[in-house]
Amino acid sequence: MRIIIAGGSGLIGRELVSALVNTGNELSILSRNPGKVIDMPGAVKILQWDGKTLQEWGEEIEKTDAVINLTGENISGSGLFPTRWTAERKERLRQSRVSAGKVLTQAIEMSGRKPSVFVQASGIGFYGKQPEKQFTEESGGGDDFFANLSKVWEASSQPVEVLGVRRVIVRNGIVLSTKGGALPSLLLQYRLFVGGPIGGGKQVYSWIHIDDEVNAIRFLIENNNASGVFNLTAPNPVTNKEFGKTIGRVMRRPHYFPLPGFGMRIAFGEVASMVLEGQTVFSNKLLEAGYVFKFPTLDLALKDLLKTL
């Protein structure tokens, strides 16, 4: 299968590229900074783009079977600790998502041969912060910043459906990997023997192992009957307290030192809500489609991720 990935240099993108190449697919990556992806497998074609205008890369759509749009500036920043959501940063987060979806749609519209499937990334932040509720793919959206950001992100590529392209929206949970995302900063606390519940620890984390994230996307690409929204979260969400206790048990470290929520809000502002306000999200539609999780429990996931550390 010939596949174009926009946003292939991020945490999910890199692992997905590796898995797709290893299973015999031909890949092209759209990159704003080709220097960031020079370490990709030799079989991968790197195409320059700016994420907002049609360029020579648009001609590649004619030869493509699948387009995967993972583009978007990192919601929590690229450092070990989250970056504040200033007004300027919020606009960058929005534009990096909306512009990419629109220009990919434009390229498909102008192409004589359409891809068979378009995978659009999103997040479970779509559902908003309602700790008393449980969410499935049938649930409505929230009204906070991340919820509204997810809505416009998803809407940016909606017109491909009118063009006859099967569209799959993957609402990603907390993706667990030692190579990036939320996990490394949590692990650091336990390595330093200062791990503990954050902000009371009752907030629920709906997580997914990076391998299941990648395998689920591959599953949805290959399943011609799969369309619409799919939550990519493991079947067993846990509270922050349970999450921390599991890390401590696997790493053989204590889980004694609470981190006050007010301190995080003072230090990081609104972005702290991503850690302090959880969501209980279930992947009913993915399970009904026949996907089998390799790591359905947090204990299994962390033992696998930490086995080489």
Written overview of the protein:
- This protein has helices at about 10-20, 85-110, 145-155, 185-190, 210-220, 240-250, 260-270, 275, 285-290, 300-305; strands at about 1-5, 25-30, 45-50, 65-70, 115-125, 135, 165-170, 175, 205, 205-210, 230, 240, 280.
- Helix 2 (about 85-110) links the parallel strand 4 and strand 5.
- The protein has one domain (about 1-305): NAD(P)-binding Rossmann-like Domain (Rossmann fold, 3-Layer(aba) Sandwich).
- Helix 2 packs parallel to helix 3, helix 4 (about 185-190) crosses helix 6 and helix 6 (about 240-250) crosses helix 10 (about 300-305).
- About 40% of the residues are buried.
- It is of the alpha/beta class and about 300 residues long.
- About 35% of the residues lie in helices and about 15% in strands.
Feature tags:
10 helices; 309 residues; two-stranded parallel sheet; alpha/beta; Rossmann fold
Strand content: 15-25%
Estimated helix fraction = 25-40%
Q: What low-confidence regions span 5 or more consecutive residues with pLDDT below 50?
A: none
Q: CATH class, anyone?
A: Alpha Beta
**Radius of gyration over alpha carbons?**
19 Å
Helix-strand pattern: EHEEEHEEHEEHEEHEEHHHEHH
Number of strands: 13
Number of helices: 10
Major beta sheet summary:
7 strands, parallel
Strand order of the largest sheet: 3-2-1-4-5-7-11
The coarse overall form would be: globular
Q: CATH homologous superfamily name?
A: NAD(P)-binding Rossmann-like Domain
User: How many domain units?
Assistant: 1
